[in-house]
Amino acid sequence: MNEWLKKTAERLKTLWGSWGLVQKLILIGVGVVVIVGIVLLVSVSGAPTQVRLINTPIKSDEELRLITSRLDEEGIAFSLGEGNALYVKDEATRSRANAILLREDLIPKGTDPWAVFSIDKFTVTDFERNVNLRKAITAEVTRHIESIADVDKANVVIEIPEDKLFAADQKSVTASIIIFPKPGSDIVTNRKKLEGIQKIVRFAVSGLTDDNIVITDQNGLQLNDFAGLEDFDRIERTKREQQLIQKQEAYYRAAVLKALQQIYTADRVRDLNIKIDMDMSKKSVSTAEHFPFVLKEDNPTTPYDDSVVQPSVTLSTERTSYEYQGTGFNPEGPAGMEGQTAPAYKDLQNMVGKATQTHEIVNEALNKRESFEESSPTVDRVTVSVNIDGVWNWKYNDKGEPVLKADGGIDREYVPVPQGDLDAAAALVRDAIGYDRMRGDSVTVRNIQFDRSAQFKAEDAAFLRRQQTNRIVLYSLIGLAFLLVAFIVFRLASREVERRRRIAEEKRALEQQMLRENAIRQAEEQNIEVSMSVEERKRLDLQEHAINMAKEHPEDVAQLIRTWLREE
Q1: Global confidence as pTM
Q2: Number of C-beta neighbours around residue 110 at 10 A
Q3: Which residue has the higher pLDDT, 227 or 1?
């Protein structure tokens, strides 16, 4: 084997060396094309195939829109092919989508969504075909039911009897289903979901009716006994009726409370009790009304009624009249013989007879109006009770201060609500609820004191705390004012002492300066040389300059002195 491989390799090598460039390129191109084709074939064959959702195309655009909208709501991915054919990714998605569409009655009529038939074989008998058909239907129905989100597991048994020649001998198709709900599911009590499962089974099996379908839970309780759910439906209906009454009561309560609280404040009108009795029965009333014909309407501009009214219209008249005149008739016997007329009738001979009869029938037509009315529900009675609290006012003394009780609390006075205000509030409530005395409505508005012990206690504590705070602030302000006055007095006294000390020093300095200047002047007059320091000479020059300025500009010097005095 190895020698054959070696010989084959050498032969291919020799053949490859003997080929030209063009031949080699052709061989390489053919190899590349073969490899690419194999890769494409593997990729195409390995791609996932889609499953058709409904076997037949959907002809109506409206049905297609409803189906696609429902699939989008459930988050099921699909694609649309030629002829409005829908495709999904796998069988599980197809089962789930079909279950939803069947439950919502979205499967088009005449469409069979069940692929229940297997491939026929030449050796398969009719009995085997029937068995396979039953198995396929059962498996498909089970898969559809289990694809529902509320069902954890389902056991389905479908009995399809053989066809009989006579209809009287034909047995009905039956189906029994046991479902195991998922935890937290309401499918056991949800009638709509149970009807969906029932429709799935009925559409899957030909000839199956709702009466022959039994759906139970794992405990053996029948779930699709809708006739036995009358009590449950009655409870649900009563529950909805109570919810309607409560909603109506809440509406009236909110409207009346808002109106009263805007007038008397929310603290004085805290709650309102309302009870509405409603008749939920359905009533039908047929009325026929007869009234005259109005030939001419009344002119509203005239002060009198000028309308023309005719009570009725004559449809037909029947008259019968009968009149007779002649002598009385007395029977006689045969000719030549005396009659057998009684003496009483003989006295009636030769008397003239007269008879008159009149009969008249007149058919009159009236204007007629017929009306038919259905009412449900209706309000039988409305009762409302409201309590409005009065006003508590503080008592004040002559100084305008609140009067305090012995225990330290504020003395208050209760002012009840006047009866006129209560009547006005009752009238407001009557108008708000549509008061009808004939149906027995009742509105009660009272003035009853609320228990405000906690409120008064909090108000007293706040008042005492505020008084204490005011005292502390007052005493603090008095102390601060005393300190401020003491500081001002001390400051003024200090300035006065300083001013007096400065004046005394200036006076002493001025006296010394004057003595010195007199001594210097006397020495100069006596031609005695006096030695002066630079500061003394400078001071003397300034003094002479100030004296000269005061003489030349007295007003400026006076203004300068005033400024000095103000600064001091």
Answers
A1: 0.40
A2: 7
A3: 227
Q: In angstroms, rounded to a whole number, what is the distance separating the alpha carbons of residues 532 and 184?
A: 123
Non-local CB neighbours of 517 within 8 Å, separated by 6+ positions? 540
Mean pLDDT of 227-231: 63
Q: Alpha-carbon distance 54 to 78, whole Å?
A: 12
Task: Retrieve residue 143's tokens.
Answer: 């898969």
**Helix residue ranges per DSSP H, 319-418:** 343-346
Give the total residue count for the chain.
Answer: 568
Q: What is the DSSP string of 392-454?
A: EEE-B-TTSPBPB-TTSPBPEEEEPPPHHHHHHHHHHHHHHHT--TTTT-EEEEE------HH
Query: Which amino acid, one-letter code, is at 398?
Result: D
Site of tokens 């409505």: 441
| Count of other CB atoms within 10 angstroms of residue 186 | 9
Burial string for 323-334 (b: 16+ CB within 10 Å, else e) reads: eeeeeeeeeeee
Q: Is 386 helix (H, G, I), strand (E, B) or coil?
A: strand
CA neighbor of 367 nearest in space, from 292, 315, 296, 316:
292
Q: How far apart are CA 215 and CA 149, in angstroms?
A: 17
Name residues whose C-beta falls within 8 Å of residue 536's C-beta, 6 or more positions apart in sequence: 516
User: What does 248-306 look like in DSSP terms, one character per residue?
Assistant: HHHHHHHHHHHHHHHHH-TTT---EEEEEEEE-S-EEEEEEEEE-EEEE---TTSSS--
User: Per-residue pLDDT tens for 363-376?
Assistant: 887 777 777 776 66
- Predicted pLDDT at 178: 92
- How far apart are the C-alpha atoms of 413 and 395, rounded to whole Å? 7
Which pLDDT score, from 0 to 100, does residue 120 have? 46
Encoded tokens for 543: 């003094």
Q: Are 137 and 173 in contact (CB under 8 A)?
A: no
Could you give the dihedral angle defined by the CA atoms of residues 175, 176, 180 and 181, in that order, rounded to the nearest 10 degrees?
60
Rounded average pLDDT over 441-454: 87
Cα(first)–Cα(last) distance of the chain, in Å?
137
**Angle at Cα 145 formed by Cα 139 and Cα 148, nearest 5°?**
140
554 φ, ψ (degrees, to nearest 5): -65, -35
Positive or negative torsion for Cα 495, 500, 505, 510: positive
Span 20-33, average pLDDT: 78
423-446 burial, b for 16+ CB within 10 Å, e for fewer? Answer: eebbebbbebbebeeeeebebebe
Q: Which two tokens stand for residue 87?
A: 């495709």
What is d(CA 233, CA 226) in angstroms, rounded to the nearest whole number? 9
473-482 contact pairs (CB < 8 A, 24+):
none
